[in-house]
Amino acid sequence: MILRGEFAAGDRLAEIPIAERLKVSRTPVRVALATLESEGLIEASPGGGYIVRRFTPREIADSIAVRAVLEGFAARLIAEHGVPRKLARDLQDCLDDGNRVIANLESNIEYEASAAYIEMNNRFHRLVVEGSGNDALIRAVELINLLPFASPSALMPMQGSPEEGRETLRLAHRQHHHIVKAMLTGQSVRAQALAEEHGHIPDINLQLALERRDEATKLLPAMRLVVGGAPE
Question: Which of 4, 9, 17, 194 is deepest in the core (most CB within 10 A)?
Fold first, then answer.
């Protein structure tokens, strides 16, 4: 409900009204609110209950930057330890699926192409993170991905012109290929650098979303939670 824009930044969330709205008891609502606070979507209100957090562009950019560093480290670990056969096959499946999307960008309906690419992109990033075998890293990335706009594909609906959007997808998928090749060949430092650079692709769409806030809010209702202008 928060991410759909049903609550605005600064709105107060109290157990009883939410329980009545959802037609559930107060206990699961209490647990849900505590979980949302730990995930960073809401914060305790001095007057009791919780309020929906406001996010600044700098906070979003910082979250994207941290995830990029973590995913770079994950790619480095995979390259150092060697890529298991199953992971290699799964990554190749992602590359093949992405290749098909890219090859048909001109003929596919735009939203269908975006949806197919987003599914593949999320799978690719999940494989890299989980393939690291580092539980602390995996948990950290999972926590970051819960924040609005911080996950790998969160800002993808926000593109410029159709051609700019297609070129961004082409660039991102070329980077997928380079990352996989570096991991498979044991080039750990290169894999880390490539994955970190790739992790900053969402910065492009964040800038567009901030420049075109009215359009972005229609595509991404959670933009209502973001206050302020472009990150410094």
Answer: 194
Q: Which two tokens stand for residue 231?
A: 């990150």
Structural domain boundaries, residue 47: 12-52
Give the residue among 18, 11, 22 at the shortest CA–CA distance from 33.
18
**Rounded Cα gap, residues 8 and 15, in angstroms:** 17
Q: Give the model confidence (pLDDT) of 19-75 as tens digits.
A: 999 999 999 999 999 999 988 889 999 888 899 998 888 988 999 999 999 999 999
DSSP 1-49: -TTTTSS-TT-EE-HHHHHHHHTS-HHHHHHHHHHHHHHTSEEE-TTSS
pTM of the model: 0.82
Helices (H) and strands (E) in the chain, counts: 10, 3
Q: Would residue 227 count as lying in a domain?
A: no
Please list, in sequence order, all residues whose beta carbon lies within 8 angstroms of the beta carbon of residue 46, skipping any fewer than 6 positions away: none
Rg of the chain taking only CA atoms, in angstroms: 19
Q: Are 224 and 217 in contact (CB under 8 A)?
A: yes
Clarify whether residues 75 and 177 are in a common domain: yes
Residue 42 class from Cβ within 10 Å (0-12 exposed, 13-18 middle, 19+ buried)? Answer: buried
Q: What is the Cα 115 distance to its own chain's centre?
A: 14
Same domain membership, residue 69 and residue 30: no
Report the distance separating Cα 29 and Cα 124, nearest Å. 34
